[in-house]
Amino acid sequence: MSAPPSPASEPSDAATLDPAPTDPPPAAGGQLWSIDAGGLCPELLAGEDAVRALGALFDDLVEALGLHPVMEPRWHVFPGPHAGVTGFVALSESHLACHSFPEHGGLTLDLYTCRPRRAPDWRALVERRLGGAGPVELRGRTLHRALPAASDR
Question: What share of the chain is helix, strand, coil (3-state, %, to 5)?
Fold first, then answer.
């Protein structure tokens, strides 16, 4: 029988994600935010419009968190009029990745950093770049990662 998920991996409204780590940073590890957004503008989630809008969202996250890209973002635009986009950028802190679902007005986004940091205002950032006519819905998880110490092996 497996143990129940830890509270850090339970889904929550992204607005209620931990604003700052409460424990001292581990010797090595990091922090993963996994965000699911809905109620977004479908036109901004497909094709080259998505590349521009998601690129701007990536830029906003890099600026808000003081991240350091080590490459230009890579984008794959799937074929078809309502097909989504996958994007990725490597960071000196780790990576930022997303996939859009224009047919559902949705986006999944993951940001992993090698050390804990304060959460950005996910709702404001997503609404600014991808908001539609209705309310934006966000769910998110924060996972604090830590490598085992040498004494744990």
Answer: 30, 35, 40
pLDDT: which is higher, 148 or 140: 140
From the candidates 34, 41, 99, 144, give the one annotated as an active-site residue. Answer: 99
CA 152 to chain centre: 31
Predicted TM-score of the model (pTM) = 0.81
Clarify whether 114 is annotated catalytic.
yes
Degrees (nearest 5) of the Cα angle 70, 33, 105? Answer: 95
Of 82, 94, 95, 104, the active-site residue reads 94
β-strands 29-38, 94-101: how paired? unpaired
Summarize pLDDT for 70-121 with one digit per residue, the tens.
999 999 999 987 889 999 999 999 999 999 999 999 999 999 999 888 999 9
State the DSSP string of 90-111. EETTEEEEEEEEGGGTEEEEEE
Active site residue 95: no
Taking only Cα atoms into account, the Rg of the chain, rounded to an integer number of angstroms, comes to: 16
